[in-house]
Design brief:
The chain is of the alpha+beta class. It has helices at residues 20-35, 42-49, 56-59, 94-108, 123-130, 167-181, 192-198, 249-263, 280-285, and strands at residues 10-13, 60-65, 68-75, 81-85, 114-119, 134-143, 160-163, 210-214, 220-229, 232-240, 268-274, 289-299. The chain has an eight-stranded mixed sheet with strand order 5-12-6-11-10-9-8-7, with helices on both faces. Strands 1-2-3-4 form a four-stranded antiparallel sheet, sandwiched between helices. Helix 8 (249-263) links the parallel strand 10 and strand 11 (268-274).
Length: 301
């Protein structure tokens, strides 16, 4: 799938960490046009790109009109891709070119598949399906209606919750969360250094963002990473160790995360899950409502 030609006058080059702000602007404009709201922050890009194992230049491409970034794509070694084009440049074949570049770069990296999340029913979904990309899984953004939250319940006897300020707590949270995600995600376990880049080293991180549950022996058996952005408390990561489930720990972590976010100014509670986890019914049962649906589309190089 060789990329078609770009419109005359546009140029390309690999991106660098210093381009994170420009990439955020392109993604934000694209999301505003498609979703009616912006869900990306520069800290999201920086946290991902600053991972020690990540070679930004090797896995990204920017499309420029003069000095202005008008489109971008990335194809990581984990098989995850992403792309966006400024709305005023839609319809010029830039998205098609970027999709072709992603497939080609994934093949050069030896990936079996390249996948990308797009809003259901969006122009991005229609384009990728036209190019032969197939649905792999569905994900949903869920919110609590105004005035509603998770009912807090006490932890089992001997369990306690605290901010993960100690190194042992942070490493324990990494272990529990990564191991839980790998039960359904097809990738290698992320190193603690790479995980930390998107959590503790993420721009704007504060200790209260990462919280853990300890069992009676003092071992970390659950963790949650919650962000505060534009008045929204967003649970980015939540997991409980497999042998400790069905004790109400996940519910307790979720309630605690949203409560603390409200204490720091959040007026809205939000999280995302996908069809691989089987957790949708849990969140719906807690009173959350689906606000957006996304589909992950993939293609073999």
């Amino acid at each position: 799938m060789a990329p078609m030609s770009l419109p005359r006058g546009l140029t390309t080059r690999p991106l660098h960490l210093s381009d994170a702000s420009a990439v955020t602007a392109v993604m934000a404009a694209d999301q505003l046009a498609v979703l009616g709201r912006v869900v990306i922050e520069e800290a999201d890009i920086v946290g991902d790109w600053q991972r020690p194992s990540h070679d930004v230049a090797a896995g990204t491409i920017g499309v420029f009109d003069g000095d202005r970034l008008v489109g971008y794509a990335e194809a990581g070694r984990s098989g995850r891709g992403d792309a966006a084009v400024l709305p005023e440049y839609h319809g010029q074949g830039i998205g098609r070119w970027l999709a072709g570049w992603m497939v080609q770069r994934a093949g050069e990296q030896g990936q079996q598949v390249i996948g990308m999340p797009v809003p259901s029913g969006s122009p991005g979904e229609r384009l990728l399906r036209e190019l032969g990309w197939k649905a792999r899984w569905t994900s949903w953004v869920l919110v609590f209606p105004e005035g509603r939250s998770v009912e807090e319940r006490p932890l089992p006897e001997g369990y306690r919750m605290r901010v993960a300020e100690e190194d042992a707590d942070r490493r324990g949270a990494w272990d529990v969360i990564e191991d839980a995600f790998l039960e359904w995600s097809e990738r290698e376990k992320e190193s603690f250094a790479d995980w930390s880049a998107g959590v503790m080293d993420r721009p704007g991180f504060e200790p209260w963002n990462l919280r853990v549950v300890l069992d009676p022996a003092g071992e970390v058996v659950g963790g949650v990473f919650v962000l505060l952005s534009e008045g929204t408390g967003y649970v980015d990561k939540l997991a409980v160790r497999k042998d400790q489930r069905r004790r109400g720990l996940a519910r307790a972590l979720l309630a605690d995360a949203f409560r603390v976010a409200r204490e720091h100014g959040a007026s809205r509670s939000e999280l995302a899950t996908d069809s691989r986890t089987g957790a949708l019914d849990l969140y719906l049962g807690l009173g959350m409502e689906i606000e957006e649906e996304w589909v992950n589309l993939g293609r073999e190089p």
